[in-house]
Structure formats: C-alpha cells, structure tokens
Amino acid sequence: MVNEKKNWTRRRFALSLGAAAIAAAGCERKKPVSEARRFPSIFRWGCGSSAFQVEGALDVDGRGESIWDVFAKQNGRIKDGSIPSITCDSYHRYKEDVALMSAANLNSYKFSIAWPRVFPSGSGPVNERGIDYYDRLTDVLLQSHITPYATLFHWDLPQRLYELGGWMSRDTGERFADYAAAVTRRLGDRLKNVITLNEPNVHLLLGHVTGSHAPGLHDGNLIGPVTHHLNLAQGRAIQAMRAQRNDLTIGTGLALSPVRAEGGRIHLLNYFAALAFDGIWAGAFLDPLLKGKYPLAAHQMVADVIKPGDMSTIHQGCDFIGVNYYSPAYMRADFSGPSFLGQGKTPAGVTQDASGREIDPSGLREVLNRLTKEYGQPRLIVTENGCSDPMGDHAAIINDEFRSHYLSAHLRAVIQAMDNGSRVEGFFVWSLLDNWEWDSGFTSKFGLVAHNVNTGERTPKKSYAWFANIAETGLLSA
C-alpha cells in the first residue's frame, strides 16, 4: 500500500530509520492492571456519525457539491454501486435519531457539519438554510440533555475548493478558518465542543496516495504538502474559533493504532519500517500541533512547503485528543519500492473483524498510554470504536452479541489505561446507525441500530440495549 509514495528516497528512509532508533529508546513499562469495572459518573457515553454518511439531502437547501459527491458517481468506486443521495435521511429524521440516543442513555453525540452546506462553493456568503439544520440539531440535542461534539471536517471538502487546489493549496486553510469562524459565530453560544479534523491521516493516505477514497488521487508526492496544509488549516481554524469565543473546548480526531513490525521486533528492518511509518501516520499530525515540530521521519517530506510562521500557527495545542481506534497496523521493509516500506501481514491465527482487521483491544490501551506518556497527560476521548456485521448485502444482524463482546473488551482496555494514569473522559461507539460506509457503501454495518435502506426503518439491535445499560450505570460486567 505505502510503496506508492514516490518521493520517499533512500536518504529520506535513512533519516526515518534514525528517527525510529531515537524513538525506540523509550519503551513503556506496563503498570499492574486493576480489576475495577466502574466508570466515573461524569464519563461521556456517546455515538458517532458523519454528515455525508447519514444526512442524505445532497441537493436540498442550497448545499453544494463535495469531492465525495463526485467520487461516488464514478463507476467502480463504491463496492455495491450504491449512491449516497439518501443514506439514513438524517437531514429530515434527526429528531428520531436523537430520540434513539436519549433512549440509550447517551449523554454525547459526535456528528460532523457539512462544509458544503455552510459554504456551497467553500467560501463566500454563508448559506443560512444549510447552517439552520445544525442550529436545529444542536437545539434538539441540548433539549435531550445530550452534549453535541461537532466535527468541522470529516472528508467532504467542497468540490469547488478541490478544483482550486484542495489540500495541495495553502489557500484551502484560509477558507477552512473562515468556515470555522462562521460556525462559531452562529452556533458557539450553544455548541461548546468542536473537533477540527477527523482522521486527516486517513484522508491523506486513502484519498491522495492509494486513491480508494475521494478525491481518488494516486500520488506519493502529495504526502508532504497535504499533511502540512491540513495541519496549517487546523491551526488557523483554532485561532479563528478562539478569537470568536473563549469558552470552547477544541479537540482533534485521529485514527491511531500501534504500528507493529511484521514478524515482531526480532525482524529488525521491519521494526524500523514500522517506527518510520508511525512517524508519518501519527507523529506528523500530533507533534506539530502539540510540540510545534515535525518528527524527523516526516520533516524531509514537508520541508519544501513550510513557510516562515507556519509552525507557530500550527502549534496551537488543543483541549483534548480524539482517538479513533479499530486495529493495530503491520509494516515491513520492502526493498522493491522507493520508500522501502510495505504493508505487513497480520499475524496468522488472530481474531479478525469483518474487514479483515485484527481485533486487539490491548492496542487501544497501548495508544492511550502512549499519548499520556509522550504528550503530557492530555485529556482523551475514544471518539470512535466499533465493528461491522459480516460484509455483504444481507439484512443487519439484530441479535449482535459479537458487537457487545467487542465493545466490552475495548472498554476493559480503557479502564486499564485509566488505571495507568490516562485521562480518558469518554467512549463513543461508531456508530448509531448502519450508514453509508464510504467506498464500502451499504455492505458494511457498524450501527447499534439497524437501518433499512429501502424503508428507512430504524431497529435497535441487542447491542443497543447492552450499551444503554452501561451508559446508565457506568458498570461493565467482568
């Protein structure tokens, strides 16, 4: 997968190995694990969604096109050939969805605001009809005693901005700051928790290198500029929001995984390859925001696009880190490609989810403990965790005990991390509904609630009642 990164020269890989060797010097010492299974009364229990996956109504109330509108129409891009014009119709059925959250005792909801609804072409005058939807959604959530967590960018870049350069252009960051300021002016009196970017590392890799996500590009040379401009946009947006209000809680959301060597640490070259990739995958987004510099493994890739003042703009810090965790990643040294990095094989015999990813709750504990150690005990929220039904066009599995077992194991990992000193404040299940899962279309079903694509009917699954009990009591059975 990553051997398509054409700009990773031998010299840059050597620099990555040097950075990896330095990073390897500090290995975490595990603390005894408590058997406690009670969460604090102030713990945030929630679920997640994104605008493009649940709202539908793509041509309603003045919304503009996004890169995903265009990508989804291209032949062969979406596994089941489905179109996202309706998805879960949450644009019209949001009150029904909020009622489902309330009945499940959830006190938090992570959703995203569609940039093309607020600015149909990415900039210009605010589309009042579009932002009115999020005004209504915010009010209904608060009336139901559910705290809204709004993500500003969950991959649906306005198509017009992409045509003007997208994340390859510094100007997109200016437009993102304008958008963040507009949302804050309109909603900031009630919307107090904001996530700037959702999984920019995934958007970078799948959208610009492997081409499996929008905008569908295959160019390793984009890793540096896209990484830096996403970081710059985030810094500018945080500045813009804080200039508007001083009472916001602002976080960032990243897909984080332990990056492990194929074959284990005894395979030294694979071990260094894993550490080098980790510097690009996680460090290139966390370090600039929280430490004011890029890790050595990433610095050479962004050096050509950094301008004076950029790093101080990016180094804004944040109030919490959102952790989206599903599985460890495996890497190997691959001397057939220019980067010397290749995607490793998952160990034989491990339990896998419907997507073929290893199910390893200990990886979540590892990520949380690492963030605590390396970034000064930041506030943490597990903003995504969950698993899909078996992939396919069949109906959702209502008696989904496998999902309860999956979530229970990961909640135990959260407790272990908290026992080791991690400041974990919440756990959000992905997702509330079976939704349109990007290039997988409707073949993937992550919801606590089944969604019938043909009728729109919502049917709570067994895991919905199970999670509702935990959210109400804070107790996790042994």
What topology emerges from the helices and strands here?
Blueprint: H1 10-23, E1 44-48, H2 51-54, H3 67-72, H4 90-103, E2 108-112, H5 115-118, H6 128-143, E3 147-153, H7 159-163, H8 171-187, E4 193-198, H9 200-208, H10 223-244, E5 249-255, E6 259-261, H11 268-291, H12 296-302, H13 310-314, E7 320-324, E8 329-333, E9 341-343, H14 361-374, E10 379-384, H15 401-419, E11 423-429, E12 449-451, E13 458-460, H16 462-473
Parallel strand pairs: 1-2, 1-11, 2-3, 3-4, 4-5, 5-7, 6-8, 7-10, 10-11
Antiparallel strand pairs: 8-9, 12-13
Helix pairs in contact: 1-11, 1-12, 4-6, 8-10, 9-10, 10-11, 10-12, 11-12, 14-15
- Gross morphology: globular
Which architecture does the CATH hierarchy give at level 2? Alpha-Beta Barrel
The name of the CATH topology is TIM Barrel
How many distinct beta strands? 13
Notes on the structure:
The structure is a single chain. The chain is α/β, with parallel strands linked by helices. It contains 16 helices and 13 strands. It has an 8-stranded parallel barrel, surrounded by 5 helices. A hairpin with a 6-residue loop joins strand 12 (about 450) and strand 13 (about 460). The longest helix is centred in the middle third of the chain and has 24 residues, at about 270-290. Residues about 1-35 have low confidence and may be disordered.
